[in-house]
Amino acid sequence: xxxxxDISQMVYEGTGVSRFVHGLIQGILTHDxxxxxxxxxxxxxxxxxxxxxxxxxxxxxxxxxxKLPPTTLSFVWNTMHRxxxxxxxxxxxxxxxxxxxxxxxxxxxxxxxxDLVYLRYPETVHSMIRKTQNRRMHWVKKESTVIxxxxxxxxxxxxxxxxxxxxxxxxxxxxxxxQPPTDDMVKKTQEMFHINKPFILTVGKIEPRKNIxxxxxxxxxxxxxxxxxxxxxxxxxxxxxxKKQSGTERVLFLDYIADVKLSCLYKSCLFFIYPSFYxxxxxxxxxxxxxxxxxxxxxxxxxxxxxxxxxxxxxxxxTSDIKKALSLLVTxxxxxxxLKKQGIIKSQDFSWKKYIDNMTQVLTVHH
Length: 367
What we know:
Layout: E1 2-6, H1 16-31, E2 36-42, H2 50-58, E3 62-66, H3 70-80, H4 86-89, E4 94-97, E5 108-113, H5 117-120, H6 127-143, E6 146-149, H7 152-162, E7 169-171, H8 183-192, E8 199-203, H9 212-222, E9 228-232, H10 243-246, E10 251-255, H11 259-268, E11 271-274, H12 283-290, E12 295-298, H13 301-307, E13 312-314, H14 319-331, H15 333-347, H16 352-365
Parallel strand pairs: 1-2, 1-4, 2-3, 4-5, 5-6, 6-7, 8-9, 8-11, 9-10, 11-12, 12-13
Helix pairs in contact: 1-16, 3-6, 8-11, 9-14, 12-15
C-alpha cells in the first residue's frame, strides 16, 4: 500500500504528541518493509530533524516538506475544508491525518485521536485549541474510515462524546522507546542540575490539565525537609504555577530537557508521580517504569488502564490523596521496590513493532 502520514506535529518538543510522532516515524522506518510511506511535513519556521530526513531518504519512502504555517492549514482544511491533500502528496491508498488538521481528500482517510480533553475537561484547554479541535472533529466524523486511538478509555470517549460508531475506532497502544543511561551519565546530569539529595520526579508541560499546582501543594503539606520535588516540563499557559509561586526552595523547575538527561532523572529518582487529571495515554508513566522507577499516578482516564497493577493509584482531584501517595512512597521501601519490579514487566507491553503491525493490518483489511 501507499500510505500518507502527516508528521508536522513532531516539531513541538516536550509534548506527548511530538514524542509520539518521533516514535511512530522510527517504528515505520524500522519495522515496515512492505508498504511505501509518504511523509507530509509542514511548518513556517521549524525544520524537520536532519537525522530523520536522512533515514527516510535511505528507505523507499518519500518526504514532502512545505513552508506552510499551522494556522493557515487549519483555516484552509478545518474551517474552509478546501484544497485536497492529493495536491501535496499525490494519489495514495490512504492518508493518515495529524491531530491538528483534517484535509479533504478523495483517498481513504484514517486519523489518530490521542485524547478528547478539550471536550472532557474544556476548562483546562486553551480556547484556540478547543476551536481547532471542534472544527477538525466535524470532518473526522464525516470522512474518516478508520480512527486509531491510544487507549480503551479514549475509545469510549470518542464513541460517547463524538457519537462515532465503535466499529471504526481501533485501540493501538503506542510504543515506548527510551534508552537506559550509564551510571556516569546519571551522575553528570545530577551535577548539572545541582541535585544533591533524594528527589521525587514528575514530567509534564505546565498547563492546568497536568495538575502540577495540586502536586506542589500536596508536597508542601508533606513537609519532608531533606527531599526535592523535580518538575520537568516547559511553561504552558498555566500562569498560576511557576518557580516564583511555588513558595518553597524544595521544588526544582527544570523546563524542557533532552531525552538523554530525562532518562537519567527517571533512573535516579526516589519515585515518579504523575497527577494529571486526564490523559489519552501518558508516556512519562511507561517511560519511568521502563527505567525502573516506582510509579504513582492518577486513577483517571487511560492512566489507570495502562498502569493498573504496576503503579500506586490516587485521586488527583483530592490534595489529601496526592499527599497520601507521596507519604507512602517516601517512607515505604518495600512498596517502592515492588512497584519497580512490576513496572519493568508492565512496560514491555508497549512496543512500536506491535503498533506498526496493528496499524498496517487494520489499513489492509479496510482498504
